[in-house]
Structures are given as C-alpha cells and as structure tokens.
Give the backbone structure.
Amino acid sequence: MTFTEPAATPLALLLLGRGADPDSERGVDCPGELPPASDPELVARASAAKATLGDRVFVLGHHYQRDEVIQFADVTGDSFKLARDAAARPQSEYIVFCGVHFMAESADILTAPSQQVVLPDLAAGCSMADMAGYQQVVEAWDVLTDAGVAATTIPITYMNSSAAIKGFTGEHGGAVCTSSNAGRALRWALERGEKVLFLPDQHLGRNTAVLELGIPLDKCVVFDPHRPGGGLTPEQLRDATMILWRGHCSVHGRFSAQNVADVRARIPGVNILVHPECRHEVVLAADLVGSTEFIIKTLDAAEPGSSWAVGTELNLVRRLAAAHPDKRVAFLEKTVCYCSTMNRIDLPHLVHALESLVRGDVVNRISVEPGIATNARLALERMLALAQPVAASD
Ligand code: SF4
C-alpha cells in the first residue's frame, strides 16, 4: 500500500480575526466543503440523554467553555455563580459541571450530600490552582511562624484554588474571595490581622491591594514556594502587608503592556477592558479592569459603535463579540490561546458523562473528603457573607 499525500486544502482553517474585519474576533466564514467540527450525532445524543434525565440532572457551563458544550448548559456563569446555582438546585441528583476541577469541588462542598457532582473530563484542571499545593502552603505557614508573623496573618484564597487550600484557609481564620469581592475580602482580613497571605494568584492580590486599597507596591512581596524561605528574609516578611503567593493564570498572565499599546495604535479610540488576573502593568495600561461578570455587563452597556479590546479567555471574548454585532469587540492579543484545561470539556466527554448517568453509572465524580470539606465550607461561607450582589470569579 502506498501513502498518498492528501490534497492541500485551498482554505486556511484558522482565520480567526483575519479577513474582512482584521481587529475583530468574530471570525470569518469558511466557505467550501469542510467536515463538521465534531460528529453531528453527538448533539442529538447529548439532547436525548439530557431529556431522559430531566430534572435529575443540572448542567452548569462556565463562561470559558466551548460553544458545543455551552449549548447544553442549564445555566452559565463564573465559578462562584455556578457554585451558588448548584447549591440552589437540591432537586437535581446529578450536577454536571462543565468547567474545571476546583469549580466542581466547590459545587460538591456547597451542595447536599445526596447530590453527586460530575466533571466530564477529570483532566480539566487549572494550572493556577495547581501552583499552590497543600504541603507547600503548610510549609510556607511554618516560614511565617518562624518569622513571627503567622499569628497576625490572615490567609485569603482566590476561588481558583483546590479544596485543600480552601480548607487550610478556613482552618486558619481566612476566607475565599472572588475577583469582584477581593477588595472586600482584603479589608475584612486587615481588620482581623496585620497581613494577608494571598493564594494562589499574585496578580489578583497585587492589583486589588494596590488599586483598591491603596497599599504601596513595596508592601507587597512575592512568596516563591520553590525557594528556601519563599525567597524572602524574615525582615521582608515582617515589613510586608501583602504576602503574595507566586502563582498566576497561564492565560491571563500572557497579556502584556505591549499588547495594550499595539491595540491602541491599531484601533483608534479603543477601550481596553481586562480581567484582574492580568499582570499589574497590563491593568495599569488598560482603561477598565474587572471580573468576568463586570466585563459582560460593561459590554452590554457599551454604546453602539464603540470599540473594545478585551483581555480575558478567548471563548468568552468570541461569544461577546458575536452577541454585540453593533460594537467592535476584539481580543487583546491574538497569540494568546484558549484555556487549554477548560477546553478539555468537549462534546464527546459531555455525552459520555450524560449517557453514563442515564445507565445509572456516575462517572468522573468529584467528591471532597469530609475533613477538608468542613473547613473549606467555612472559608466559602465567609466569602458568601462578603459577597456583593453580583460576585464573580473567572
Ligand atoms: S483561565 Fe486561568 S485561572 Fe481560569 S481555569 Fe484556565 S488556567 Fe485556571
């Protein structure tokens, strides 16, 4: 048998943001004979399985999920809203969480013991959450204890952290925060202590401390878990107000101040709107910064004809661009890609999860150990008490 090279396609398949509207991420048409993106039968199978399960299943879709998955979500939202939505559905035996691992854990913690949470692909983790391991944080706390500051430090962890880190935070008098109530959480913590250990996103911690609370940049130090003593001297720890964990989002962390300058040069009058997981210099260069829900509301309220460049996850930016054809909505930087772990949840995995539930087989269940869940719930409940009417994470 001889191998024949397939004929070259006359179409470039990845034309995102090119063609008729070079500054937009609405995409362009791909005319011609192209295969479907995935087996069209999967749509019918997902619909049939969901219809069979009825109210027994509740499907949650995070804003960063693919379109092929989001079409089956009963509700969409950020991680905090989805965890609350799950808790408000006690009649659903199964919660299928189309998002990443830490989100499914939070849903499990906040839902009734009789409800089972399913993550369609167990490999859908979060690189930011993985940057703060439980043992690393325990060892960091020992460093703070040796420096004599642990007793006056309140841990605050971003929603984007493992249940074990949330549990550690609850056990040590701290709270979980979201990207929209991080300022409130820091004020709450600094009423109870002199310092904050902020986990695991250094950028959200720094942006909030400096821009919302007016804490000087030189009072923010970065604790690097891969260096002895976090790479800090006891004096530096004693002098700091914010001890920021050296973690970041691998998507938002890729935007740069140069991207902001480039897009301003390319699109006259553009408004730059970014998520606070972006680096400090990006946030300083942008016009507006806010959580996912803030980004959505800002574009909803924007004037027709206005131009926007948005620095957040691409699936969301593409949907926002499609939802606002009267506005010019561009992605802040074309070389930044989708969140690869979010994108692991695809239609085949969703169909597998739903059809397994129809057979009575609960695959990929996320279940947080009761010992961890008790303290994590404490930290989450402190967050709920702090939450604004519209709270949000990523
Ligand atoms: S976008 Fe960033 S923080 Fe959100 S799930 Fe992906 S890696 Fe984690």
